[in-house]
Amino acid sequence: MKLSRVGIVGAGQLGRMLALAGYPLGINCVFLDRSAAAPAAQVAPIITGELEDAAQLTALAACSDVLTFDWENIAGGALAPLEKLTQVRPPRAALEVSQDRLAEKALFSRLRIPVAAHAAIDGKEQLVRATRKLGLPGVLKTRRLGYDGKGQFLVRDAAHIDAAWAAIGGPGLIYERFQEFSREVSIVGARSAAGQTVFYPLSANVHGGGILRYSIAPFTNRVLEHAARTYLKRVMKSLSYVGVLAIEFFVVKGRLIANEMAPRVHNSGHWTIEGCVTSQFENHLRAICDLPLGSTRALGHTAMVNFLGAMPDRERLLSMDGLAFHDYGKEPRPGRKLGHCTILKCRAMERNLALADALKLIRWT
């Protein structure tokens, strides 16, 4: 069966880039989102309504060969009835496990993927006991609905416990021992329904205020690359995964500690649009539409920089050789991801130049 109509729940910038990747393949996307002004609505048809509204989801399924999503905080129960109407990819199980940090860590641990020492927290006394057992500093996080640094509080010492509880205290939390990491890296891969898997090179990521600021790829380390691919493949196989999946890691004393996974295309994989033979967006569509997966070979060294809060001077950036500019068409507000740019350096010797360009762009944006 030819799958060429993709319904996407959520119409943010990830959906927008999926739609743009689909057109050359003969794949057309239609979206469901609360706002008719969402980024993806500028490039594809949209149904407006609440993301978990049963009638609107049914309408989306009715005009789609396969459903996917560009945001993982959608209740799995809302998608369950749609499985009788069309295919939902990635599978609902992946969506649900990624929505709860405790369930996510349980999955990682079951699959022998290292994670930070942690404990479930539902009351302040539990937090006090956890800090004593697991040590300080640590990070108190909401188990659900946390992204881009939201719902987190760094507990540096016992004197910060009251402040942490006042900020985000309540049931449904997790406390994690702080990781003294040397670097943050992520791996993005894709898996088809037939079990074909492809992996992109590792990217090295730098965050500010919990939000990804820039990525440099490929990050070359054979040992870490092998481990990351092994771990990602275990998760994909365990969940009978179809689509693109990303896992973010801390590098701690030369080994990977899994932080979290994202069952969708991922910000740290934006560099693949210009930096690889086949982008993460195209491979996600290929995977969910039962098409052969494309090559993930890097074309050189790429720097990807997010535009946060305000768009930079487009003319100035476009004067840089090899720069690709992406404007998501969003209204500015502090900390909001409004766009990104990439710079590709095609010669191996230019890896450090890609990093230098990223730092230059940070100063400009």
What is this entry, summarized?
This protein has helices at 13-22, 54-62, 76-79, 92-98, 101-110, 124-134, 161-168, 222-238, 272-275, 280-288, 314-318, 351-364; strands at 5-9, 28-33, 46-48, 66-69, 87-88, 118-121, 138-142, 152-155, 173-177, 183-191, 197-199, 203-208, 211-217, 243-252, 255-262, 301-308, 323-327, 337-345. The protein is of the alpha+beta class. The protein folds into three domains: 5-88, Rossmann fold, CATH 3.40.50.20; 117-177, Dna Ligase, domain 1, CATH 3.30.1490.20; 183-364, ATP-grasp fold, B domain (D-amino Acid Aminotransferase, Chain A, domain 1, 2-Layer Sandwich).
Structure write-up:
The protein has 365 residues and is an alpha+beta fold. It folds into three domains: 5-88, Rossmann fold (3-Layer(aba) Sandwich); 117-177, ATP-grasp fold, A domain (Dna Ligase, domain 1, 2-Layer Sandwich); 183-364, ATP-grasp fold, B domain (D-amino Acid Aminotransferase, Chain A, domain 1, 2-Layer Sandwich). Helix content is 30%, strand content 28%. Strands 10, 11, 12, 13, 14, 15, 16, 17 and 18 form a nine-stranded antiparallel sheet that branches. Strands 3-2-1-4-5 form a five-stranded parallel sheet, sandwiched between helices. The protein has a four-stranded antiparallel sheet with strand order 6-9-7-8, with helices on one face. Strand 14 (243-252) and strand 15 (255-262) form a beta hairpin. Helix 1 (13-22) packs across helix 10. It starts with a strand and ends with a helix. The model has no long low-confidence stretch (mean pLDDT 94).
